[in-house]
Structure formats: structure tokens, C-alpha cells
Amino acid sequence: MFNVKEYSKINKKKIQKYHKKYYHIHKQELKERRKKYNQNPIVKNKRRKRRREYYKKNKIKFAKKSLDYYYRIREKNIMSRKERKMEVINGYDGKCVCCGEANWEFLTVDHIKNDGAEERKKMTGNQFYEYIIKNNFPKKYRLLCSNCNWSRGTYGYCPHEKEAK
Ligand SMILES: [Zn+2]
Ligand SMILES: [Zn+2]
User: For residue 165, what pLDDT band results from cuts at 50, 70 and 90?
Assistant: First the structure.
């Protein structure tokens, strides 16, 4: 008795060769047929529906995946930003020149002559830190804590200056 399974197992190479040859000869035709099939609106709709269902079924999985990604990137950004900021803070004196505040979270880089607005506007925070490190901590900048910086920016002076007098 002829056994298809047995036959294809024994003649595996031969069949593969045949298919390959067939494909090669009818390449253009097959391509065209495939294209036509793919452009068929019924096929298209079916595929779209299947994709939507697949997405619906795995919605939570997808959402979790993208959320994980988001947190990973955010953490990475915060880390490198913090590392750069630390380097900048250490490059200057490590504390607010006005009140001595030394917690890095409070510290900001201040442009002494106050003409750094334009310069800074062109850079993101990270780029600004990079710029400072690359230029070996230019003297035109100093460290101020947010309070001292805010008061100087808003009122033109810091209350600490009055206390010192
Ligand atoms: Zn301060
Ligand atoms: Zn101050």
C-alpha cells in the first residue's frame, strides 16, 4: 500500500527541490497572486479583525509592557541626570554660595551675570550639565539653592544678604 507520509519522509529532499523549482519558475505569477489576495477587501477586513481581537485579548499584557518600558526609561533618565548634576555640584563648591544649602535636590546652577537665559534656553537640563562639565566648570556660573535663586530672580536680592550685613 502506498503511504504518503512514508513517501514524503523518504523523498523529503526531492520534494523540497521540486517545490523550489516550481517556485522559481512561477515566481512572478505567485507574487502577483499573493498581492491580489492581500489586497482583497474581505481578506483585509478579516486580518484587521483578527489583529484587533489579538490586541484585545492581550491588552493587559501590552499595556504592562509599555508601562514597564516607560518606567525603565524614566528611571534611566533620572539616574543619568542625577549623576551629571552630582558631577556639576561637586565641580563647584557642593553647596549654595548664599546660604550653604548642600542637599543636591535643592541646588541649581545660576548664571552670575544673569545673561544666561538665552544660552540656557537652547539646552535641556542634561545638555546644560554636559556643557558645564565639558567646559571645566566655567566661573560665570555658581550654585544657588532654589530659595536663594528664586528670591534673587523674583525680588532682585536674597534675604540672606541682608542678614549678613
Ligand atoms: Zn541658598
Ligand atoms: Zn540666600
Answer: low
